[in-house]
Amino acid sequence: MTIPDGPSALSTAPPSTTPNTAAVALYNPFTGAVITPGVDDAVPQAALLGLEPPRYCTECGRRMVVQISPDGWWAKCSRHGVSDSRQGGHR
Q1: pTM of whole model > 0.70?
Q2: Which of 1, 61, 69, 85 is a good FRET partner for 23, with 20 to 30 A between their CA atoms?
Q3: Where is the Biotin synthase auxiliary protein C-terminal domain positioned along the sequence (predicted)?
């Protein structure tokens, strides 16, 4: 009995020819709905002016803890951390 040489000799599946392109879903920061390419989501006018903070995480769609102060806001996702109005240039 012969033993194959190396880990590649043990693999019976053909190598993948497609690159690993996992699609990452993005979420609307004001509604929490999944953003669908080609479909326009309604954005509140206050959000367009930078007056309304995001309420949902854009990476996972979870509801965030939001603190509003006179000079800006910050929002915290339990999985992805804190973002604030300084990041968007609104402070």
Answers
A1: no
A2: 85
A3: 64-87
